[in-house]
Amino acid sequence: MTLDDSDKIHLLNRFGFGADADSVINYSAVRFQEQLFPEKTAEIKWTHDMGALKAQSIQNMVLSENAPYEKLVLFWHHYFACIIDKSKHAILFSEVIRKHAFGNFKDLLLGVSKSAAMLHFLNGKKNKAGSPNENFARELCEIYTLGEGNGYSERDVKEIARCFTGWKYDDTGTFYLREKQFDSGMKTVFGKSGRYTGEDVVELILSKPQCANYLAEKIYTFFVNNRLSEKHVFEIRDCLMRTNYDLQETFAYIISVPWFYSDQNKMALIKSPIELIVGLGRTFRLKAAKENNWFFVQKLLNHEFYKPKNVKGWPMGRAWIDSSSLTLRMHLPQLIFGTNDIDFEVEPDLDQSPGSNKFVYLKDRLKFKADWNYFLDSSKKVSPEKLWFNNKASDVANSIIKGHKGAISKEYVLDLLSLPEYQMH
Asked: Is residue 253 part of a domain?
């Protein structure tokens, strides 16, 4: 399939964090797939401070040579929402996602289910024979595989909980089965009976068309459009089932079909705060004055790694935007580049400021240095208007663009970054 510049920009927006001039001019389908499905990724030397770890998670995405792959990683962090407060657990959780981001969904689902982070978050350690805890079983069905009330009953939840009894993790965060706490009796799940284990339940869930459909809808709303197309969701569902949940084949299929590049899908999604932050970081090669500044900007925009709002995860689409958050997002470039003196406030986490009820002012913690020479040289090859708005600029934006004369200036660039269109991709 031959892509024009608009298609390339769209692809780099959805499976990446925005297009740059070189990636459009030198686009290669083979090279892109190598970045989306890399044979090997750089080894990460994780930090063990929780705030610094959140900062590092953003920095990895800003600096990575494989931005498309990092976008898959971000998607799965959204999909498997898990509140994590221990750095050791967060690192192991991230490594599971990074290992299976484009592998088989079954392996990813099992890996996440057995992670210390998920077992702790949904009370897996309390789940034992004779006294099953239903939290994980319920969320496994409702949030991670089938969708609320879709293809399972309350009876199924109770029986599934029995299948996951005895699942534990040790002091290193390594999974193990405590045999004495496992319920080895007969269970009936989805109308089928057997001495099922947790692994068996995953197989049973994946065999249900509702699971493939639910996953297809989540993929579609994140990468394509939050207005579902039943026809296109069905195609993704069919690909998942036909390939036995092979994620690489599924994502490769999506970027190969004409409807992915349709005009109605371009610039149709609102960037999440992390997408916004990483996009700015990559576009301007931002360097934080202090590494933890990458954490504070997440906190400011209420989108922190390892801290979703609840088990349902972070908001999506328009839920990110209200009058207050939009104003802040539109001022963010000026704050980052030090041209705006507005102070914004957020409450600190208790683990960041023990015993403190005071607000933390973040203005001084948003200091970043931009490589303006790199950006201006890049802008001579492809204009920022084309890369950022992809032929979807509003009348207001077009009036600013048409009113600009001469070389691209910092002031003009900040005007473009402050437009509502920059919040879209």
From this structure: no
Task: List pLDDT tens digits, range 76-123.
Answer: 999 999 999 999 999 999 999 999 999 999 999 999 999 999 999 999
Indicate yes or no: pTM above 0.85.
yes
Whole domain around residue 346: which residue ranges? 273-423
Q: How many domains, in total, are found in the chain?
A: 1
H helices present in 164-257, as ranges: 198-206, 209-223, 230-242, 247-254
Residue 202 neighbours by CB distance under 10 Å: 21
Distance separating alpha carbons of residues 369 and 367, to the nearest angstrom: 7
Tokens 């910092």 belong to which residue?
Answer: 410
Which residues does 365 contact at the CB level (< 8 Å), separation at least 6? 290, 292, 293, 296
DSSP 48-117: SSHHHHHHHHHHHHHH-S-HHHHHHHHHHHHHT------HHHHHHHHHHHHHHTTSBHHHHHHHHHTSHH
Asked, for residue 133, whether it belongs to a domain, the answer is no
Q: Is the pLDDT of residue 334 over 90?
A: no
CA 240/CA 246 separation, integer angstroms: 6
Maximum C-alpha span of the chain: 77
Q: Is the pLDDT of residue 345 over 80?
A: no
In a domain, 62, yes or no: no
How do residues 58-73 score in pLDDT, each as one tens digit? 999 999 999 999 999 9
Q: What's the pLDDT at 389?
A: 97
Closest C-alpha to 206, from 104, 94, 136, 116: 104
In a domain, 280, yes or no: yes
